[in-house]
Amino acid sequence: MASSWSWTASFFVTAGLVAACLVGIAVDASRAFYVFGDSLVDNGNNNFLVTPARADSPPYGIDYPTHMPTGRFSNGLNIPDIISEHIGGESTLPYLSPELTGSRLLNGANFASAGVGILNDTGVQFANIIRIPRQFAYFRQYKQRLSGLVGDEEAAKIVKNALVLITLGGNDFVNNYYLLPFSARSRQFSLPDYVTYLISEYEKILVSLHELGARRILVTGTGPLGCVPAMLAMRRSQEGNCDVELQRAVSLFNPQLFDVINALNTRYNSQTFIAANAFQMHMDFITNPRAYGFETTKVACCGQGPYNGVGLCTFASNLCNDRDTYFFWDAFHPSEKASRIIVKQLFAGSTDYMHPMNLSTVMELDSRL
Ligand SMILES: *[C@@H]1O[C@H](CO)[C@@H](O)[C@H](O)[C@H]1NC(C)=O
Ligand SMILES: *[C@@H]1O[C@H](CO)[C@@H](O)[C@H](O)[C@H]1NC(C)=O
Known about the structure:
Blueprint: H1 2-10, H2 15-29, E1 33-37, H3 79-87, E2 108-110, H4 132-150, H5 152-161, E3 163-167, H6 170-177, H7 184-188, H8 191-211, E4 217-220, H9 229-234, H10 244-267, E5 273-276, H11 278-287, E6 302-303, E7 318-319, H12 336-348, E8 354-355, H13 359-367
Parallel strand pairs: 1-2, 1-3, 3-4, 4-5
Antiparallel strand pairs: 5-8, 6-7
Helix pairs in contact: 1-2, 3-12, 4-5, 8-10
The site of one 2-acetamido-2-deoxy-beta-D-glucopyranose (NAG) has 7 residues, from α13.
């Protein structure tokens, strides 16, 4: 209400004040956005850490507005950036960025860190990454800083009305269970038991997010890990066929995550948790790449070895010319083009992709509050 009043009033004041009011409206109009999880959604936190899990050198960022690497694992924008575009806000800053101060806190923050998983022992080889308990500790600190800016009551309201994205799970397979032929976790657990354990730990993470005050939480399942260029190369795929074992892992994981999301919504008698079927979205691209404008969904744009899936994307790697025709930018991460199509599905997808509803419906419902 305050913003529509200032909008009307602004017609009667000087041009300088009009501009000031418009800035006020812009802050009011977009909701805060918080991001947790791994490299699929990290937009630069790892640049501030001592870890090999980083995307801070060319050609990362080649299609970013600055054409410079930013820490995003993309040729340009990534999924959270494009979600921000849709909800009418600026991209959220990495929480560790020194630029995240003052009124910028109102826009939200990104706490994600490349290499992390559901489990604390996932990504140990990446040393100082921000594992989930630490991402949440930073979020608590963020909430205090926000309270300092706008007061406790308003801060709680901003968090409650915010959109939250969490993306986890892939690394618990590729950078833990399947990292080595006889990994500790694979000796400890059969695959079905490991998935049950992961899901029980993920449930605790989702409950924590709810306890921290979040009320609109988009949870992406895990994509078809057996089809990413890194796994096609590592597991010696013939003719680009997806690895059967990793696909089995994902086919156990996603339905159980979906069940947890439904159970939590029932427990809280709400539609707090929104499940995105990343697996199905990605399989559609693989089944019919040309329908989406992709020449290939098997070969990474940047990399080397079979499927450009071996090692890291660096200045010495093969680099494709037309990034928009590659689903994968590097051995694990989608191109900006692919991310745009995924975000379109998040907002407009049918209930086969988005459960209990897509983000357009969420935005519409929440705008009536
Ligand atoms: C992960 O670490 C946090 C604290 O560092 C701890 O509270 C939590 O129980 C750990 N999770 C598991 C599954 O061990
Ligand atoms: C979103 O979901 C609703 C309900 O399933 C559907 O009617 C609508 O077409 C979807 N897309 C948009 C843009 O709302």
